Amino acid sequence: MVSMYPYSISKIANELIETCKLKGLKIATAESCTGGLIAGSLTAISGSSAVFERGFNTYSNQSKCELLNVSFDDIVTFGAVSEQVAGKMAEGALKNSPVHLTAAVTGIAGPDGGSPDKPVGTVYIASACSDRETLNKMFLFEGDRDKVRLDTVKEALIMMLLQVVD
To answer: Which of 82, 55, 58, 54 shows the shortest CA–CA distance to 69?
Structure first.
């Protein structure tokens, strides 16, 4: 199988798709810094339409509020790149979709936009599941913009897989 994604990402995406097929689960994504790459990695798998429902590309703060019900107060208080906002994005995608599982990402892919508190490579990933607690984790990835974004995709897929593997 030839894919535009690295083998490690394609392998995890395929495992997630197959696991969700077996369990009858549907997936949605809510992406900021990856701009649809997580959804792309899933839909690159033949047969993913049995599992993948939709993706929200919420790059702007306004889109996070309008499409995912993220509170503007949370964005002001914690920042768009925060554990709180990632969690709200994942939960908003779950609420606004007929799915069982979501992943959400928000971060600073670089090369600009970092700060001492949140340097380039800071990414928050959350996964919400209809019958489990929301998982939320902060990562500090190294490398250029493409590497940060691909590392984010890989970790988001792993987090979703952890939600559905018994």
So the answer is: 58
- Report pLDDT for 2: 61
Ramachandran angles phi, psi of 39, nearest 5°: -60, -40
Assigned CATH topology for domain 7-163? Maf protein (3.90.950)
**Confidence band for 166, pLDDT divided at 50, 70 and 90:** confident
- Report CA-CA distances (Å) from 22 to 1, 120, 151: 21, 38, 27
Do 68 and 93 meet the contact criterion of CB atoms below 8 Å apart?
A: yes
**Cis ω on the peptide bond leading into residue 111 (within 30° of 0)?**
yes
Count other Cβ atoms within 10 Å, centred on residue 162. 12
pLDDT confidence bin for 59, thresholds 50/70/90: very high
Beta strands in the chain (DSSP E): 27-31, 52-57, 101-107, 122-129, 132-140
